[in-house]
């Protein structure tokens, strides 16, 4: 029997154990191949104004994905090597030379890698049309995606992953030459001592996480911590203390919790609870590192995906906040299609300027009657009656963190006029792009104001997001000097959707890859422990413990390994997303909850699959 055939038989025999590993690698290669394919896709090149943005985003994302895959494969490989040490020792005992054993492991890893690579490229080729369709739909385009073959993408993917698999395959030699024969036989029996809880480490870990949460939830513009560490340094500091606190949380705080559960005889002496908690406590040091990594990965995935999905979800609301009218521009009216037009108004406003020692600000003066007419047309239930010498200020871009509230103050203009600001609203009846901040005065004050008149055209249309053709029709008729101030709801929505949609596409699929790899890492680790515990469960079965009780114990033990990092990751991401929503001043509660539920649901599938595999292993020994 040749080494290659022996390696092939080993793969076939362990295929059930390798399944999730291969599936995760194939999925990773599919996404990487798709990202690279999109760089060379003709349909992407046809998206004017967005093609370079998408290609740049896909290039950056493929680098991030590749970096993560390298870590994932190396981490997974270490589990497989540990699992195979006893088998390697048997080959050595039978007289097989270390060089031959190393070549066998080399062939095994290389075959698994190459099979995954071929499957990933083939599936990626057929999936590229589906993924491209998802991308263009998320970006709001109506382009029909075609199934295209990119030789550049195939060569790029094949070359990089072939080198990666070649490198990881060489790791098999390290196991052969690093350990003595007796060490390989007892590798699975080299357990850990039950750790002693460190009160100092537990307090420090809790304090670090609390500090990270407090800083993340603090206002970026007013917090002394943000000023001290700067805008770039503070997030890095928060990430650092959160990672350190998470490790100490699992390494020390978890010891306190598990020890307390073990000592609580009213709970621990029920069923097999004592056995389950003892198993977790026994391996806590080995699990602490893995659980910390998984918690941080989960937090990163949920934060990035939830933040981008929140922005995508709020795209329309953000556009409408700044642009209450479908179209608006300064200058004379133009001819355009009147289908679906709700109103088409020409207004006379005045342009005002406020000077200070650093710069000047332009404002638009609007008379009360025009405001009331537009408010009625837009469905705003508010009618103004403004006294002489007073004004109502409309600022759609107002943010209490860095905008000044003029309510109750005198608003002085560069032309010498001044008005008392009775009220200030954070919505407007004029588009911010064209009009900026608006001062509304009564018609008498408007006529007396010493400022230049400007002509404003305001158009409202039904089904306005679909009126891109009308937007282009108007824009092309405007003089060059007026095109810059033209504001269009469908055009702004399209531009915003193109940017955020591409980010959502990348974030979603990178998140799925991270999730698949994370679930696989837990799966490998738990199944390795399951094989080590086979004899213990066989003894339990012999003394009368039934299958239902064993399944319950297995499910509970695996639930802790899966649930603890998930809960910590969700809490971490919640505080990070609070900071994110404050920074962008938008409500992300609903989209973030939906994202967390979707993530948890997929994560739960890995849990179910792992419990079934764990139970199957220990039941085989019991039989």
Provide a descriptive summary of the structure in words.
- This protein has 623 residues and is of the alpha+beta class.
- The protein contains 23 helices and 9 strands.
- It has helices spanning 3-13, 15-39, 42-45, 51-93, 98-138, 151-169, 171-178, 181-185, 199-217, 224-263, 265-268, 273-282, 284-313, 315-322, 368-377, 432-435, 443-448, 468-477, 480-483, 489-532, 534-542, 547-584, 589-622, and strands at 327-330, 341-355, 360-367, 390-394, 410-412, 418-425, 437-441, 452-461, 487-488.
- Strands 5-6-4-7-3-2-8-1-9 form a 9-stranded mixed beta sheet.
- A hairpin with a 5-residue loop joins strand 5 and strand 6.
- It is elongated, with a radius of gyration of 32 Å.
A few lines on this structure:
With 623 residues, the protein is α+β, with helices and mostly antiparallel strands. It has helices spanning 3-13, 15-39, 42-45, 51-93, 98-138, 151-169, 171-178, 181-185, 199-217, 224-263, 265-268, 273-282, 284-313, 315-322, 368-377, 432-435, 443-448, 468-477, 480-483, 489-532, 534-542, 547-584, 589-622; strands spanning 327-330, 341-355, 360-367, 390-394, 410-412, 418-425, 437-441, 452-461, 487-488. It has a 9-stranded mixed sheet.
Question: Any key phrases for this structure?
Answer:
623 residues, nine-stranded mixed sheet, alpha+beta, elongated, single chain
Distance between the termini: 32 Å
Query: Fraction of residues in helices?
Result: 55-70%
Overall spatial form: elongated
- Number of distinct beta strands: 9
Task: Characterize the largest beta sheet: strand count, sense, and whether it forms a barrel.
Answer: 9 strands, mixed
Low-confidence stretches: none
Quaternary assembly: single chain
Total DSSP helices: 23
- Evaluate the radius of gyration: 32 Å
Strand-residue proportion: 5-15%
The overall pLDDT, averaged over residues, is 79
- Report strand order across the widest sheet: 5-6-4-7-3-2-8-1-9
Structure classification: alpha+beta
